[in-house]
């Protein structure tokens, strides 16, 4: 017992000594940084932005714009690509099966994301080759690069947007801004029209996905009621049958193949 007590006291002593040394090192580093900060004065704002020159301020504004675009990049990915349709279809599938957490949200979103990359690969390649690479090599101006980057996504959205949705936002604009310029639809009109078109198609596909599972639920519920099993929830018995049905028909292959073909 005395040996254990001495060992514990030594351990606590070492811990206290280590903590003290750590604090001392921290204070020494803070002092060194403070001395360095005093020897080197920070540049003033007037040196960064000299009067009469808008070049530095313009670069700062461009940097802020770039950071803003990067912060909303996930939202842009959802708005102008096929991600919405895939995400809705996979969510409807999980709801139809009656599974709450399987597959996990990470699996569903990752599958929808990679299927989006698969479908949008031609648009991404064109945007990279015609817009991003020439801009990085300083071969084209920024406005031309933005137009070339947006062009393949604009064509993709025009192929899959409904004319009814497009006319809706054109009417709602009410001459507040030009809906078309040189025969090109404004993105402020095209993007929301494309999104509600994708939402509509996603729910249409979801209805077709959920319908066979609903039939299985009705059959199982009818059988349990006829057999007098009033206290047994029908979903407990229908769940394995729905999973077995989905596996036997190779449901993932059919669903993913149909979703990809819907964009061709």
Automatic annotation (TrEMBL):
Short name of one Pfam family: FliP
Identification of the protein by name: Flagellar biosynthetic protein FliP
NCBIfam families xref list: fliP, PRK12797.1
Lineage: Bacteria, Pseudomonadati, Pseudomonadota, Alphaproteobacteria, Hyphomicrobiales
GO BP of this protein: bacterial-type flagellum organization; protein secretion
Keyword NAD: no
Membrane topology: Multi-pass membrane protein
Cell compartments where the protein resides: Cell membrane; Bacterial flagellum basal body
Membrane-crossing segments per the record: 65-90, 205-227, 239-260
Keywords: Bacterial flagellum, Bacterial flagellum biogenesis, Bacterial flagellum protein export, Cell membrane, Cell projection, Cilium, Flagellum, Membrane, Protein transport, Transmembrane, Transmembrane helix, Transport
Function: Plays a role in the flagellum-specific transport system.
Family: Belongs to the FliP/MopC/SpaP family.
One GO CC term on file: bacterial-type flagellum basal body
């Amino acid at each position: 017992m005395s040996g254990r007590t001495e060992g514990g006291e030594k351990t606590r002593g070492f811990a206290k000594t280590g903590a003290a040394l750590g604090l001392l090192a921290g204070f020494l580093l803070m002092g060194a940084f403070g001395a360095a900060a005093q020897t080197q004065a920070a540049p003033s704002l007037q040196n960064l932005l000299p009067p009469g020159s808008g070049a530095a301020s313009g670069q700062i504004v461009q940097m802020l714009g770039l950071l803003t675009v990067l912060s909303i990049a996930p939202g842009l990915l959802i708005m102008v690509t096929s991600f919405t349709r895939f995400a809705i279809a996979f969510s409807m599938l999980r709801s139809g099966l009656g599974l709450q957490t399987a597959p996990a949200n990470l699996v569903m979103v990752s599958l929808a994301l990679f299927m989006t990359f698969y479908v949008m690969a031609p648009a991404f390649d064109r945007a990279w080759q015609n817009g991003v690479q020439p801009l990085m090599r300083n071969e084209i101006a920024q406005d031309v690069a933005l137009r070339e980057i947006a062009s393949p996504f604009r064509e993709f959205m025009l192929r899959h947007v409904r004319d009814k949705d497009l006319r809706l936002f054109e009417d709602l604009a009410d001459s507040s801004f030009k809906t078309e310029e040189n025969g090109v639809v404004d993105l402020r009109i095209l993007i929301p029209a494309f999104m509600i078109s994708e939402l509509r198609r996603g729910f249409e596909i979801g209805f077709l996905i959920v319908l066979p599972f609903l039939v299985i639920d009705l059959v199982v519920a009818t059988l349990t009621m006829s057999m007098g099993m009033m206290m047994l929830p029908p979903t407990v018995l229908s769940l394995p049958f729905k999973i077995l049905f989905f596996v036997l028909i190779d449901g993932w292959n059919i669903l993913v193949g149909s979703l990809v073909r819907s964009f061709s």
